[in-house]
Amino acid sequence: MVSERCGRSSSSSSSSSSFSAENLASGSAEEDQTADPPQAERSTMATGTTPADAVPSPVPSASGSASSPSAPGRPGSFISYITTEEVPDDGGASSSGGSSRDRKDYNNASRNPPSMTSSIRAHVYDGGLRYHAFRDGKYAFPNDEIEQNRDDMKHTMTRKLCHDRLFYAPVEDALRKGGQCLDLGTGTGIWVIEMGDAYPATSFTGIDLSPIQPNYVPENVHFFIDDFEEEWVDPEDKFDYIHVRHTLHSVRDRGALLGRIFKHLKPGGYVEFQEMHYVPHCDDGSMTPETPYAFRDFMSYLEQGMRALGSDLNAITSLRAELAASGFEDIQQVTHKCPIGVWPRDKRLRLCGHFMRTATMDGLRGLSRRPFGTGLRWTQLQIEMFLVDVRKAVMDSRFHVYFPFHVIYARKPSG
Ligand SMILES: C[S@@+](CC[C@H](N)C(=O)[O-])C[C@H]1O[C@@H](n2cnc3c(N)ncnc32)[C@H](O)[C@@H]1O
C-alpha cells in the first residue's frame, strides 16, 4: 500500500576465536557466540584519508593465487501484494542525478511532480556499471541487476546462516501486536517484504538511496528514497524497531546515525545491526598470515578504499562501544561464521559458503571500481589484473576461510 507519510523521496558473545573450523566442517558445533569481539579486532573510526602506501605500483602484488527472485515475480504471497501506481520512467538511461531535498513517497505518483519522480528514479553509469543518482556518489557500490541479485542471494544466505531467523532483538510481541519498523538501506526490500508478510499488523518502512524496490509489496510495506544520514522527517519516539543489515560499512558518521536512531526509537524500542567483519578468518591453518592469499589482499585494499571514500568497512567491530556511548542499554551480540566457498562438511554451512562465494565472485568488479579506482586511484587495468588472482583465490577450496557475521542489538532505555 502506498504510504501516507510525507517527507521521503519516493520503497551474549564474542567473535569467533573459540570456534574451530573442525566444528564448522563436522557440523557438530553451534557457531553462535555471545560476547565482545576480541579487542584486537576492533577498528577505529574512519579518518577519510588515503594512506600513501595504499596505492599499488604498477599492479598490486597479489600474494596468492577471494533466493529470492526479484520482486514482482516473488513467489508466496504475491496475491496479497497490491500494485502501487506506476510512475513515469526515464527509460533507465538518464545520467542526471536527483538533487531535490524534497522527500516524497516515490510509489505515490500522484504526490510527486513527474520531474522529481524521474530524477529520483534516475541512475548514473560509470565504467559499464549502474549507480544511484540521488545523492550521487554517496554509496560506493552499483545498484544494477547483478548487485540486486547479489543482495537477494546474500539475504537467502543470511537467513540460512541465522537458522532462518530474520531478526534477533526481542521485538516479536511488538511486531505481532502491530508496531512501527524501519529498515535503513533496504536495498531490494527483500527483508522488509518478508517481514511485512510475517507481521501484517506492523507497518514497515524501507529507505534507500536507490529506487530498486518492487512495485508489488504487502500493503503494510512502504519504500522511500532517501539518505538516512540526513535528518529524518519522522516524529521522535516513533519506531519500535530499527533494522540495519549489510549496510553499516557505508555509514559515514556512525555517531550521528546512532543519535538519530536513539531519537526516533520509542523508549524501550530496539535497534539491530547485522554485518560481516570483512576480514577472512581461518581456524585450521589452511590460511595463515604468511599464506599468499589474494582474497585477503583484496579485502584489505577494499577497506583502505572505503576509508578513502569516507566509511569504515569493518565498522561493526567498533559498534558495541559506540552503542553504549550513545545511551543504548542491554547490548547483545550473536556471532555466526559465514564460510566463503564450499569447504565445510556441514550441509547448511556449505550452502552458505556457496552463496557467499557466488556473491563474492559476481561482485568483485562492482565492489572494486569506486573504492579502488576513485578511493585508491588504481587504474582500471591495475584493478582487472589484480582481480585475476583474486578470482583464483576465492575459488580455491583449500583455504578454509570465513567472515565472522555479527548481529548486535540494543535497547533505548524505557524512561
Ligand atoms: C548491501 S545493500 C543491503 C541491502 C539490504 N539491507 C539487505 O540486507 O538486503 C546496502 C544498501 O544500503 C543503501 N545505502 C547505503 N547508504 C545509504 C544512505 N546513506 N541512505 C540510504 N540508503 C543507503 C545502498 O543504496 C544499498 O542499497
UniProtKB/TrEMBL annotation:
Residues 1-120 are annotated as: Disordered. It comes from the Eukaryota. Residues 41-50, 107-120 have a biased composition (Polar residues). It holds the Pfam family Methyltransf_23. InterPro entries: SAM-dependent_MTases_sf (IPR029063). CDD domains: AdoMet_MTases (cd02440). Residues 9-20, 51-77 have a biased composition (Low complexity). PANTHER family: ABC TRANSMEMBRANE TYPE-1 DOMAIN-CONTAINING PROTEIN-RELATED (PTHR43591:SF10), METHYLTRANSFERASE (PTHR43591). Belongs to the methyltransferase superfamily. LaeA methyltransferase family. This is S-adenosyl-L-methionine-dependent methyltransferase. It comes from Phialemonium thermophilum. The lineage of its organism: Eukaryota, Fungi, Dikarya, Ascomycota, Pezizomycotina.
